[in-house]
Amino acid sequence: MPRPPTTFATARLFARPPRAEDAPAVFAAYASDPEVTRYLSWPAYTRVEPLAAFLRECESHREKGNGHLAWLLSLKGTDTPIGSIGLTLEGNGRAMFGYVLAKKFWGHGFTAEALTWLVDWVLTRPDIYRAWAFCDAENPASARVMEKAGLSREGVLRRWHVAPNLGPEPRDCLVYAKVK
Ligand SMILES: CC(C)(COP(=O)(O)OP(=O)(O)OC[C@H]1O[C@@H](n2cnc3c(N)ncnc32)[C@H](O)[C@@H]1OP(=O)(O)O)[C@@H](O)C(=O)NCCC(=O)NCCS
User: Which one of 7, 12, 25, 38 counts the least CB within 10 Å of its CB?
Assistant: First the structure.
């Protein structure tokens, strides 16, 4: 079974596992920005330490090999995080993706570039048949990222995901997938 790559590179980006020491840079780049976290499962961080704890958890998921994998993205030639992308190997032949990018870097195709690489890689695994992701129904930029990465829209998951920044009720989401 091919192991998920520890690091990977695309035309413009380098991806590597996050470490707790990255917390101040991740905090400054995007994790403290409420505009970035608007549709996500977490409120913007107001302190660095809880973010460091989360990054520590990411490291431990990777060490345990439980299928939760995250990478920090930086522009090639630098080590400053500009975003992150993650995948969960869910079993049943499925891999689910999530991603976030610092606002300053939106609109240059960076997220689609990272997602395309990882989706194509994961579908080379003989045990993965479905690469999928969802986004809030009101987050068209994220829907477009999935389309650009070759995923097709399958429909609406009604009342699927609570975005705590927008209220306590689960919201409608768009579901996209690439299958083989
Ligand atoms: C969603 C997000 C990751 C996109 O990152 P990005 O690197 O700017 O994405 P890309 O440049 O690869 O592609 C964005 C596409 O959406 C389009 N887009 C942006 N805003 C849009 C809008 N309001 N309506 C329709 N399309 C929009 C862009 O034009 C671009 O498409 P194009 O290349 O065909 O012109 C980034 O905006 C982000 O981090 N948002 C906050 C976190 C988030 O929502 N993550 C996704 C959770 S599901």
Answer: 7
